[in-house]
Write a structure and sequence with these properties.
The complex is a heterodimer. In chain A, 71% of the residues lie in helices and 2% in strands. By secondary structure, chain A is an all-alpha fold. By secondary structure, chain B is α/β, with parallel strands linked by helices. Chain B folds into two domains: 182 residues, P-loop containing nucleotide triphosphate hydrolases (Rossmann fold, 3-Layer(aba) Sandwich); 76 residues, no CATH class. In chain B, the strands form two sheets. Chain B has a six-stranded mixed sheet with strand order 6-7-8-3-9-10, sandwiched between helices. A four-stranded antiparallel sheet of chain B has the order 2-1-4-5. In chain B, helix 4 packs parallel to helix 7 and helix 6 packs across helix 7. The chains are: A mainly alpha, B alpha/beta. Chains A and B meet through helix 5, helix 6 and helix 7 of A and helix 3, helix 4, helix 5, helix 6 and helix 7 of B.
Amino acid sequence: MEALFSRLSNDFVLICVYLVLALSLNLINGYAGLFSLGHAGFWAVGAYCGSAFIIYSHQAGPGIPGALLFCGGITAAMGGAALVGLIVGLPSLRLQGDYLAIASLGFSLIVVNILNNLAVVGGASSFPFGGLVWPDGALYDLKARVAHNLTHIVLGVLAVGTCTLVIRNIRHSSHGRAILSLREDEVASAMCGVNVVKYKLLVFVLGAAFAGLAGVLYATYTTRIAPEAFNFMESVKILLMVVLGGLGSLSGTFIAVIVLYEVPELLRMSHVTIAGSPVADWWVMLYALVLVMLMILRPQGLLGSKELFECAGIRRLFGMAGRGGREA
Amino acid sequence: MTTGRLSYELPAEGLRREFALLALGDLTIKFGGLAALENVNMAVYDMDIVGLIGPNGAGKTTAFNIISGVYRPTTGQVLFQGRDITAMRPHHITRLGIARTFQNIRLFRKMSVLDNVRVAYHHHNRAGLLSSIVRAGIFRSQERDITERAMQFLRLFDLDARSRDEAGSLPYGQQRRLEIARALATEPRLLLLDEPAAGMNSAETEQLMELISWVRDQFHLTVLLIEHDMRFVMGVCKSITVLDHGRVIASGTPDDVRSNPAVIEAYLGEAK
């Protein structure tokens, strides 16, 4: 019972973390058409900024309530990630073409290297919260652990909800249409009066800030972060979630994140072996195969740029009439 | 050097420039040492329909790209309503009142017909990002306004029935019309049309000629257009400027230009 709760809540919180990451990358990559390969870098910046704020504030004033520390941590994480996003984006977004992909890739490698050598946040070994768990209590205590997990489930839902709502509302506004037009034709959108550089920066910084939010959530949940958790492969993983779900489809991202997170987890648990090695090892190969098939059969991703309720089959299922509501 | 610049070398040049809606002054642009435009002078006056013609590679589209801010000229300046817009960024120039279409149609193909026009209205939007996120009252009233005005444009161009379709799915002629509608939605004073009749049959071209004159009167704007179809240019333009190898070789009324030896030479080769 305990084990099941622990496993389910663990999966739930981590799926929430990946959802915030993938949704915010979808804003950058799917809506604005900017190719960023360094999302894990912003995730790391958020995780370390948030953790550093919480841990050092706690050391400075042990009496500060946990909730206040956490709110400060969120602010530090989102602010830090947004600032770094601005610094990375400012030079590379002024240029047309794929400079952003190269700059963001380089950035994410640099972040991991810096963190590996930064003693104040633990260097290459992990940066633990030193027994500090929010809400107060120690993890060895079962009750505290349940409270910890439940709190993070609520926080995860709040983070995903906020992220989804903000991105959706931006998408269905004049600003969102300006952002979408960038993906279609940058020159034409400038000719329509859209400030191209401003909107690219806005999207990039906002996406980075949400990655920071995912970072602080991840850090306070795991209570122990290490630089290698944010390596380049994580950026690729997040990008694959976005591409699989469909560039520009939020509901597609939800499906893709849950599938790409749960399938390897379930395989790991199954203890089935194929040709002598556990099935989980085969997953890596299967993963690549699925992606190759996807690119051949459905290059636009599962849902393309549509949302789930816009797809004809789903509409018929729920008895909704008319064509997909794509006008807003 | 002398033939093309006659009217602009008069003492009254400064005066004329001041009253011109758009004035190009000694415009030169070089790409890697090769001059695509050289000392181009040109003036476009209010409510005129002006044609910019010339053989392929004469620098017509380059001139459009400089006016709309895509390229920055090597030397020279662009004045719009007496204001120097040479170093301005494209979206800023659009907001001052210059809109354009493209030689090869550049619609937002995956966006709806309505959204194409609504993007052009974006710079009139007064609802900030935050009020859009929290769906404040101003957001809703602004969205209503924008949608209403965009639909008006679509009705004018007979595209309202297809407002929800993807722009890329429209037939060619409608795509051309949508591009013009989108340009007009930015509420320009000056409309730049880059080969609007390209790929159209003669009936469609006829319709387009009427449309352009009608648009000019309806929206009180000035039109500068590039076109290869001579019947179109002679029919619709009040004055014409001819470019060849990056220089202005003639300008004047259609009749002047038609009989100008330099123009005939540029199009047909040297008479021996």
